[in-house]
Design goal:
Blueprint (H helix, E strand, L loop, with lengths): L7 H16 L6 H26 L2 H15 L2 H12 L6 H17 L2 H7 L2 H33 L28 E6 L5 H8 L4 H9 L3 E2 L10 H10 L5 H6 L7 H8 L2 H8 L3 E5 L13 E3 L8 H8 L14 H7 L5 H17 L7 E7 L33 H29 L5 E5 L19 H4 L3 E4 L17 H9 L12 E2 L9 E2 L1 H4 L7
Parallel strand pairs: 1-5, 1-6, 3-4, 3-5
Antiparallel strand pairs: 2-7, 6-7, 8-9
The protein binds zinc ion (ZN).
Length: about 525
């Protein structure tokens, strides 16, 4: 008997990964998709071989393995579609009901009884051919999409972008004796006190006073150099404006991939590494600042799936197992964290804990923590109790925030209050445990996004978004090098000049607007964002 050609189980298995990747091309490195693709192929092959053994029937084994793997790889998405379009407010446990209901259906459809009755050899061939063609058509869409993007992106980074940093300055290296440990803590979206007072009715002066009594200088007029996380952090760590990226990728480019290298291989880190420092990264789950090649990479879980994998796994049947009411969730999460509120919260809490632990590490160190708070989602209340927003996990801010302004205000301030307590005690621990007095920088990468909810445009009120918390602990009375409007681009220039015998010029403190999706189309908004606006 001639065997039917069967390729569709493998193509169906690839589709959920390729589909998710093709919808997030500009922020996922192609290499990050390889492992989930391989795992999907491995699982479908294993399922197929086991079923052939058990059933002695290639056609039925192919049918069953294809549909089970396809369904299990996207069942959380199926559940969300049903929940989003048909039955609002459906409980998450419906996902488990779906899994229980659908599996026997596929088993029945693939049973010998059904196939003996309805699938004679002629029909089997037609069905296999048909499924082969459908599966080919399905994966062609994402493949064209991915191929087109990668071809277009190919000439954006003729050489690594970090190679363009410092091109207009004479090279300097760090010197000095008994140089301090450096702690650089980014609190994502943490706004300036006058913004919190004017737009949120929240008085943040007790926290700032707490920092001042511990010896901090607060830059009370500080504004970020960019309004987007990736641009702002990359620029601060590279100690210069990164508007050269517009010449490399084109101002209309959506390709953010070369930024990963520019951020990870940044100038502050390179200079400190050359000077014998260890680079210690406290992982907080932000794809953009997970520099896996750090000398010390601190992460709360036992495994470190990349962010794409964490997103992908959260859309599979695994999503059904990550529910607050299930006792197995924390144990499962430890080995296989998937994107979601529970994982987000563990990352945030653990990063705060780790700040107090890192002073115990030996030798000179540069500790970097990028904590995704008080930025949405709001997963902790002011006392640190867990919160779970009642919409599927997204991290969007401003125009991409999914709930209303009152909820934003409340959630945001709740996280600010909790962070304030934790940061003060982390500072106490760092100061107490450090062998010599350290440098500590606590900074927002941009302000909050309440007003941006009404529209993210250059003519909107951007004062809120640009105005940041920016606090410096510099030992030995070097505070006279600081000034109220110092912006992140000058943070490491100042620190290196003070303690490492360099003579970096300070750059003008400017702010540039660009859209999240078109990051390199920069518009100088420095004058505009100096003026308060947006209060009702
Ligand atoms: Zn941010």
């Amino acid at each position: 008997m001639k065997k039917n050609l069967i390729i569709y189980p493998w193509l169906f298995a690839l589709y959920p990964v390729l589909g998710l990747y093709s919808r997030n091309l500009t922020e996922i490195l192609p290499s990050e998709a390889i492992r989930p693709l391989a795992i999907s192929l491995g699982i479908v092959t294993l399922a197929y071989l086991l079923l052939v053994r058990a059933m002695g029937d290639r056609d039925r084994a192919a049918f069953l393995s294809a549909f089970l793997v396809f369904f299990y790889s996207s069942s959380e998405l199926v559940y969300r579609l049903i929940e989003g379009y048909a039955f609002k407010g459906l409980s998450e446990s419906f996902h488990r009901v779906l899994l229980v209901a659908v599996t026997p259906m596929f088993l029945f459809l693939a049973s010998r009884m059904v196939w003996d009755k309805y699938m004679p050899q002629g029909r089997r061939k037609i069905a296999a051919d048909y499924l082969n063609i459908v599966s080919i058509a399905m994966i062609l869409f994402p493949i064209f999409n991915i191929g087109g993007f990668l071809v277009e992106a190919a000439d954006d980074a003729p050489r690594p972008w970090s190679g363009y940093v410092g091109a207009n300055e004479s090279p300097q290296s760090l010197g000095g004796e008994d140089t301090p440990d450096i702690y650089y803590v980014i609190l994502d979206g943490y706004g300036r006190a006058d913004v919190l007072s004017s737009l949120y009715g929240f008085d943040n002066s007790p926290f700032l006073e707490g920092l001042k009594t511990r010896g901090f200088f607060i830059a009370e007029q500080s504004q970020s150099n960019y309004l987007r996380t990736s641009l702002s952090i990359t620029s601060a760590l590279n100690m210069e404006y990164i508007n050269f990226t517009a010449d490399l990728a084109g101002a209309e480019s959506t390709n953010r991939l070369p930024m990963f290298e520019l951020a990870s291989n940044n100038r502050a880190r390179r200079l400190l590494t050359e000077a014998g420092y260890r680079f210690v990264l406290i992982d907080s789950g932000s794809a953009f600042t997970r520099f896996y090649d750090a000398d010390v990479f601190i992460t709360p879980f036992r495994t470190t799936p990349n962010l794409f994998e964490m997103w992908f796994y959260s859309t599979t049947a695994l999503g059904a197992l990550y529910q607050p009411e299930l006792s197995m969730t924390p144990a499962l999460q430890e080995y296989l964290p998937v994107a979601g509120y529970a994982t987000h919260r563990v990352f945030t809490l653990d990063a705060l804990d780790q700040l107090s632990q890192t002073p115990d590490l030996d030798g000179p160190k540069f500790v970097f923590a990028h904590i995704i708070a008080p930025h949405p989602p709001f997963v902790l209340d002011s006392q640190g109790n867990p919160l779970s927003p009642d919409y599927p996990y997204v991290t969007g801010d401003g125009a991409s925030f999914v709930s209303d302004k009152e909820y934003y205000k409340q959630g945001y301030i709740g996280q600010v209050e909790y962070l304030n307590k934790r940061i003060l005690s982390a500072v106490d621990d760092i100061l107490r445990k450090s062998k010599g007095p350290p440098v500590i920088i606590i900074q927002g990468d941009h302000g909050p996004g309440l007003l941006l909810m009404s529209g993210d445009r250059p003519d909107a009120c951007l004062w809120e978004r640009a105005s940041i918390l920016n606090a410096y602990y510099l030992p030995d009375g070097y505070d006279d090098l600081l000034y109220p409007a110092i912006s992140p681009v000058n943070s490491f220039r100042t620190v290196f000049n003070a303690f490492f015998e360099t003579s970096f010029d300070l750059l003008p403190d400017k702010t540039y607007y660009s859209l999240f999706d078109v990051p390199y189309n920069f518009l100088d908004i420095t004058d505009k964002v100096r003026n308060p606006c947006g209060a009702e």
